[in-house]
Amino acid sequence: MKQTIVVAGLDVQVYTTDAFKTSTKPILAVFVLHGRLGSTEVDYVQNVITSVLKAAGEHQGEKDLMIVAFDHRNHGTRLRSEVANQSFEQNANHAIDMYAIQAGTSEDVSFLIDFLESILFPANEREVVEWGVTGISLGGHSTWMVGAADPRVTLVVPIIGCPDYLGLIQPRATALGVAIGPPHFPDSLMKVLKAKALTALPYNSKAPENPFLGKKVLVLSGGSDPLVPWSTSQAFVEGLEVGPHGSKEVKVVEGVGHEVVPPMVDALVAFILAKL
């Protein structure tokens, strides 16, 4: 079942199982974020949503599943500039635009967590007791960001995404002969990136300031991904500490490029069902 709502001008799709309407169970809400140049309607996003919902509908658990999807900034129904979504060859501001889009989408997730329950359940009919985010490619980058930034997000599943923006974008620029400096990488941008970089956080520490402590993390990547190589994420992921109350699973599918393949979807489905 699909319902489209508008939250402060943002079109949001809410997907639930057939049994959801008459159920009173607490809710696990999971955002599904699409990739660059895509939208909520692209096949790989709809396949993920359909696969997870089908499995949830056949699963008898303590919680109901609600899936939430919306278009990234400057994508789909929010598109304002096609050039701004292109890479360095067509867009001199690529390093700025791509980071701003994924950071803005991360903020959109937190914004929706603030207000979705009020709009969907104004008479307190249901309660969302857990929030999760999964995203693909650009959506995977945003997933890492919101997983670190929002303590309400406890399930974090980046798919072919990267937690290290500079580690990802700088080699791309260098390969194209783009200098790591103004105007492609202004000092003002570098200041923001370094201040917000997940690699600057104590992700390999058990200290209380570690934002991933207690969270359940599943990382899905392609072993032969030329666009978002596993090597750009590996050090961060291997050093990531989630503490005794969290969990971390990593699945790198060998021989797979920048794509979402059935083993990744199966792993995501199993991960979510275990939380219901």
Automatic annotation (TrEMBL):
Q: Which domain of life is it from?
A: Eukaryota
Question: Is Acyltransferase given among the entry's keywords?
Answer: no
Q: Does the keyword Hydrolase apply?
A: yes
Supply the alphabetized keyword list.
Hydrolase
GO terms for MF: hydrolase activity
Cross-referenced PANTHER family, in alphabetical order? Answer: ALPHA/BETA-HYDROLASES SUPERFAMILY PROTEIN, ALPHA_BETA-HYDROLASES SUPERFAMILY PROTEIN
- The protein depicted here goes by the name Alpha/Beta hydrolase protein
Query: Which species?
Result: Mycena metata
